[in-house]
C-alpha cells in the first residue's frame, strides 16, 4: 500500500508524474530516500532515450548582472512550444543564464560539465537531464554568449 502523504511529498518535491512517483514508492516499499534515488536513475534513463529527438522550439533568455556590467544570452531548445511555456522550462533557462554569468564557460560543452552554482553536487548537464525527466521532452542548450564590460 502506497503512503499517500509520501506520494504527495515526492510529487511536490520532484514535479515528476504521479504515476512515476507511485511506481518509485512501490519499488522501494515507501522508502522516501530510495524513491528519490529511483526517480533520479529512472529520469536519467528516460533522458538518454530522448536525446535523439528533434528540438525545434524553445526560448532565448537574457540575464543582466552586476549593475549592467555582465550580460548573457542563452538559447535552449525543446520539442514543443507547450513545454517552452512551462515554469519548469523557463526556470531551467534562467538558471542556465545565471550559471553562464557567474562561471563564464567557454562553450556549451564546458557549461554542461560545470558544477551547478546553487548545488555543487549536480552539474548543469544533470540539471538539464532532470528537466527532461520532468517534462518528457528532449532539451538542448544550443548556444550561449556572455558579454562583460572591458572584456
Short description:
By secondary structure, the protein is an alpha+beta fold.
List its salient traits:
151 residues; alpha+beta; Helicase, Ruva Protein, domain 3; Tetrahydropterin Synthase, Chain A; 2 domains; two-stranded antiparallel sheet; 52% helix
CATH fold-level assignment of the largest domain: Tetrahydropterin Synthase, Chain A
Helical fraction: 40-55%
The appropriate CATH architecture of the largest domain is 2-Layer Sandwich
Order of helices and strands: HHHEEHHHEEHE
Q: What is the CATH C-level name of the largest domain?
A: Alpha Beta
What fraction of residues sit in β-strands? 15-25%
Structural class of the secondary structure composition? Answer: alpha+beta
Q: Would you mind describing this structure in some detail?
A:
The protein has two domains: 47 residues, Helicase, Ruva Protein, domain 3 (Orthogonal Bundle); 92 residues, Tetrahydropterin Synthase, Chain A, CATH 3.30.479. It has seven helices and five strands; from the N terminus they run H-H-H-E-E-H-H-H-E-E-H-E. The protein is elongated, with a radius of gyration of 17 Å. A three-stranded antiparallel beta sheet has the order 1-2-5. By secondary structure, it is of the alpha+beta class. Helix 2 packs across helix 3. 52% of the residues lie in helices and 23% in strands.
Layout of helices and strands:
Elements (H helix, E strand, L loop, with lengths): L3 H11 L3 H10 L4 H19 L6 E9 L4 E9 L2 H4 L2 H17 L4 H6 L1 E2 L2 E5 H12 L4 E9 L3
Antiparallel strand pairs: 1-2, 2-5, 3-4
Helix pairs in contact: 1-2, 2-3, 3-7, 5-7
Amino acid at each position: 500500500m502506497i503512503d499517500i502523504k509520501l506520494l504527495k511529498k515526492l510529487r511536490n518535491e520532484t514535479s515528476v508524474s504521479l504515476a512515476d512517483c507511485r511506481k518509485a514508492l512501490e519499488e522501494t516499499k515507501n522508502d522516501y530516500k530510495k524513491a528519490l534515488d529511483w526517480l533520479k536513475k529512472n529520469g536519467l534513463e528516460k533522458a538518454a532515450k530522448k536525446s535523439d529527438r528533434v528540438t525545434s522550439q524553445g526560448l532565448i533568455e537574457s540575464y543582466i548582472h552586476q549593475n549592467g556590467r555582465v550580460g548573457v544570452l542563452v538559447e535552449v531548445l525543446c520539442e514543443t512550444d507547450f513545454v517552452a511555456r512551462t515554469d519548469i522550462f523557463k526556470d531551467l533557462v534562467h538558471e542556465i543564464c545565471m550559471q553562464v554569468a557567474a562561471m563564464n564557460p567557454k562553450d556549451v560543452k564546458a557549461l554542461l560539465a560545470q558544477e551547478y552554482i546553487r548545488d555543487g553536487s549536480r552539474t548543469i548537464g544533470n540539471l538539464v537531464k532532470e528537466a527532461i525527466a520532468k517534462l518528457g521532452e528532449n532539451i538542448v542548450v544550443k548556444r550561449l554568449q556572455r558579454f562583460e564590460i572591458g572584456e
